[in-house]
């Protein structure tokens, strides 16, 4: 039997190949957490550490434009000379490759980015959370 609910936008995360179905109003990192994935972060979704940043590979038109807070957090990563983004490409080159996407090129914060359609992003370190089941006696 098929699920009668319409499918939400899907964000594919490279290089892991993880596919996240994002619910309305949810950020990319919230979708990852809900679906049992670990997404690198230090501030746990507060938008302050920029560790959750990702590179938009395809579907940038399906991301809600960044707010002032997100732009303010990402701009230092792109100023003051060439810096490396998540793929090893200089941030300036990455921004040129995604010209017109946002004021911060193709970089976004997973804790702030919301999608309206399918997209492909690049972020290393996204993986399923491992769970451990203890035996009844509680000993490993």
Residue fraction in strands: 15-25%
CATH evolutionary superfamily: Beta-grasp domain
Poorly predicted spans: 81-101
Biggest sheet architecture: 5 strands, mixed
Helical fraction equals 10-25%
Outline type: globular
Order of helices and strands: EEHEEHHEEE
CATH topology: Ubiquitin-like (UB roll)
List keywords for this structure.
two-stranded antiparallel ribbon; 7 strands; Ubiquitin-like (UB roll); 140 residues; 19% strand; five-stranded mixed sheet; alpha+beta; globular
Protein model, in words:
The protein has helices at residues 28-34, 68-78, 91-97, and strands spanning 10-14, 18-21, 37-38, 53-58, 107-109, 119-122, 127-128. By secondary structure, the protein is of the alpha+beta class. Strand 1 and strand 2 form a beta hairpin.
Short description:
The protein is of the alpha+beta class and 140 residues long. It has helices spanning 28-34, 68-78, 91-97, and strands spanning 10-14, 18-21, 37-38, 53-58, 107-109, 119-122, 127-128.
Topology readout:
Elements: E1 10-14, E2 18-21, H1 28-34, E3 37-38, E4 53-58, H2 68-78, H3 91-97, E5 107-109, E6 119-122, E7 127-128
Parallel strand pairs: 1-6
Antiparallel strand pairs: 1-2, 3-7, 4-5, 4-6
């Amino acid at each position: 039997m098929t699920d009668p609910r319409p499918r939400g936008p899907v964000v594919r995360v490279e290089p892991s190949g993880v596919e996240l179905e994002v619910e309305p109003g949810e950020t990319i990192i919230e979708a990852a957490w809900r679906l049992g994935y670990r997404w690198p972060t230090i501030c746990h979704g507060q938008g302050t550490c920029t560790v959750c940043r990702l590179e938009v590979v395809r579907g940038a038109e399906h991301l809600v434009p960044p707010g002032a807070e997100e732009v303010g957090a990402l701009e230092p990563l792109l100023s003051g000379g060439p810096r490396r983004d998540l793929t090893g490409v200089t941030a300036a080159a990455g921004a040129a490759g995604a010209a017109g996407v946002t004021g911060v090129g193709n970089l976004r914060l997973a804790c702030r980015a919301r999608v309206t359609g399918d997209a492909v992003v690049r972020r290393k370190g996204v993986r399923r959370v491992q769970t451990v089941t203890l035996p009844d006696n509680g000993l490993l």
